[in-house]
Specification:
With 266 residues, the chain is α/β, with parallel strands linked by helices. Helix content is 50%, strand content 12%. It is built from twelve helices and nine strands. The strands form two sheets. A seven-stranded mixed sheet has the order 1-2-4-5-6-3-7, sandwiched between helices. Helix 9 crosses helix 10. The chain starts with a strand and ends with a helix. The mean pLDDT is 85.
Length: 266
């Protein structure tokens, strides 16, 4: 896959890496989001770039970011984009490995991860934070889970590293409200609206021609309520149909066929 595994830190039991390092050239950074969301991403990036100037006035950039929203709407993409724009190495924390390490070790491992992020600036990406919230319900050892949650809250509170901590979650109602307060920026990534859907379609079809009177707005109406990843998937299937049929351009029929197919699957 081309992703490098970080050597440090690992879970002691089975030495599974707790961090996955994604090299800069592998980072995806083209996002299609509403303009108000885009503006907030840009603000984070600008503050990070101006961190030295801000520090002379005793100010800190927003560097603890929580991304939330429905699955497939670009939370991981948002984390990759922030790492790309700031030039930081993206270190993805594997919560599944973290939680399956000896349960007593989880809090210690979490601390080791934050310590290494403070030493060497990176974009620390806590993906699927809801795993912890869910573990709260699944595990018998509730005391241990709240210890992990408290440890996470404390580490976020004390984080003074020169990098970013980015957390992503689908479920905001099960998350401890105390968690939200530990972030400088709580950013919702919504499902795409009509304007974003049209931009996604045009981006997805950019390698091909589209028929002259392609009904963009009708397509957007039809695709409403789907996530970015579902829309991109439909577009790729429509493009393949067009190529396999040796058509010069993607037609409405291609898109319609791909949409009908996805409906059958889901």
């Amino acid at each position: 896959s081309g992703y490098g595994m970080a050597t440090l830190p690992t879970s002691r039991r089975d030495s599974a890496p707790l961090l996955l390092t994604i090299p800069h050239e592998k980072l995806r950074h083209h996002m299609v989001v509403p303009s108000d969301v885009e503006a907030r991403f840009i603000r984070i990036e600008k503050e990070y770039a101006a961190r030295a100037r801000l520090a002379t006035y005793g100010l800190r950039p927003r560097n603890r970011i929580l991304l939330h929203g429905p699955p497939g709407c670009g939370k991981s993409l948002g984390a990759e984009r922030l790492a790309w724009a700031t030039g930081l190495t993206l270190q993805k924390v594997r919560f599944d490995t973290l939680l399956s390490s000896y349960f007593g070790e989880t809090a210690t491992n979490l601390k080791r991860i934050f310590d290494s992020a403070a030493e060497k600036p990176s974009a620390l990406f806590l993906d699927e934070c809801d795993t912890i919230a869910r573990a709260r319900g699944d595990r018998n050892d509730v005391g241990e889970v709240s210890r992990i949650v408290n440890m996470l809250l404390q580490l976020l509170e004390e984080f003074k590293g020169d990098g970013l901590v980015i957390a992503a979650t689908n479920l905001d109602d099960t998350l401890d409200p105390a968690l939200f307060r530990r972030f400088d920026e709580v950013l919702e990534i919504p499902k795409p609206g009509d304007a974003e859907i049209v931009r996604l379609l045009k981006l997805s079809f950019s390698a091909l021609e589209t028929e002259k009177d392609f009904p963009w707005s009708e397509a957007a109406t039809e695709l409403q309520g789907r996530s970015c990843s579902e829309i991109v998937n439909v577009c790729q299937n429509a493009a393949k149909r067009s190529v396999l049929a040796s058509r010069q351009a993607v037609t409405w029929k291609d898109l319609e066929g791909a949409m009908a197919e996805q409906r059958r699957v889901s």
